[in-house]
Structure formats: structure tokens, C-alpha cells
Amino acid sequence: MILSRTSIEVLSDLIENRLAIMSIGDQDDLREKIVLTRALSELRLKEGGDMPAGVLSQFADIPRRGRRRKVGSAETI
């Protein structure tokens, strides 16, 4: 699906407004903020701008949900 420049700008504005009014109260709010920040950076990339430096590095230390998959326990058929 191709988005027009106007659509990208509107979506970016909506995400920025949501991030501005957001208050972090628990882990779910933090996850939502991370998802919105990533979506905003993707929209800016599609708009033709470069990704700001350090956008991905700020998410590197956030733990993932759940346990890591055990590689040795996978059965081969």
C-alpha cells in the first residue's frame, strides 16, 4: 500500500500528539510508547527524511516479552 505525502504527514502529527499527551504508568504504556516511536520513525523514513541518529539504539536495552526460545529443544522431523 502506498501512502501519499499528506497521509504520512497526518499520521505523523497524530502519533506526535499521542506521544505528547501520554503518561507512562505501567509496562503496557511503555510498550505503546515504544511502538508509537518506532512507527513515527518509519513514517519519517517513508516521507523521504533520514532516520534520526540514535533512534534504534534507545530501544536496544529494553527487554523482550516472554522467554527466549530454546534452540536445543526444537524437534527435527
What features would you describe in this structure?
With 77 residues, the protein is an all-alpha fold. The chain has a domain at 23-47. It has two helices and no strands. It has helices at 5-21, 27-46. The longest helix is centred in the middle third of the chain and has 20 residues, at 27-46. The protein is flat, with a radius of gyration of 17 Å. The chain starts with a helix and ends in a 31-residue tail after the last helix. The model has no long low-confidence stretch (mean pLDDT 76).
* Cα separation of the termini: 38 Å
Helix content: 40-55%
Count of discrete alpha- or pi-helical segments spanning 4 or more residues:
2
Task: Report the uncertain regions.
Answer: none
Task: Tell me the structural class.
Answer: mainly alpha
Radius of gyration: 17 Å
Number of strands: 0
Mean pLDDT: 76
Largest sheet, if any? none
Describe the global form.
flat
Strand content: under 5%
Structure keywords:
single chain, 77 residues, mainly alpha, 48% helix, flat
Short description:
The chain has 77 residues and is mainly alpha-helical.
Per-chain topology:
Layout: H1 5-21, H2 27-46
